[in-house]
């Protein structure tokens, strides 16, 4: 079993919800997810995905650290992939003593390696018989 220091890097930090992505007709930010999907599809070791398999849920920010994290939810597995603008992955780590304010975005910590975040999407579950993928690889645009 890997230790916390093998899974994560740095310390966890609190965020607030970034409402600017939804104000004035703001559009979801897909670039980090699109970039990662292209890189992953070139790997033979990681399960492949297409950015069209995700919903954009929200963004959270930590102004002190100058980081904005985009929250993408996989349509089928319902698991999150949280990416910042530089395409680094983060885990959501709730703590009971964190503030429960409406603008709190929760606590996050950066993954030490991207493969951990991708494996936690549980995309390999589709290899099992009887599981249906809403946007299967044979339908992905080239």
Explain this structure to me?
This protein is α+β, with helices and mostly antiparallel strands and 142 residues long. The chain has one domain (4-124). Helices cover 15% and strands 31% of the residues. It has helices at 4-7, 31-41, 114-119, and strands at residues 8-17, 54-62, 67-74, 80-84, 89-92, 104-111. The chain has a six-stranded antiparallel β-barrel. The protein starts with a helix and ends in a 23-residue tail after the last helix. The model has no long low-confidence stretch (mean pLDDT 89).
Topology:
Blueprint: H1 4-7, E1 8-17, H2 31-41, E2 54-62, E3 67-74, E4 80-84, E5 89-92, E6 104-111, H3 114-119
Antiparallel strand pairs: 1-2, 1-6, 2-3, 3-4, 4-5, 5-6
Which features characterize this protein?
globular; six-stranded antiparallel beta barrel; 6 strands; 142 residues; alpha+beta
Number of domains: 1
Structural class by sheet pairing and helices: alpha+beta
pLDDT < 50 runs, ≥5 residues = none
Strand content: 25-35%
Number of strands: 6
Q: What is the mean pLDDT?
A: 89
Order of strands, widest sheet: 1-2-3-4-5-6
Radius of gyration: 16 Å
Work out the helix count. 3
In one word, what is the shape?
A: globular
Could you give a short account of the major beta sheet?
A: 6 strands, antiparallel, barrel
- Percent of residues in helices: 10-25%
- Spatial gap, N to C terminus: 38 Å
H/E element string? HEHEEEEEH
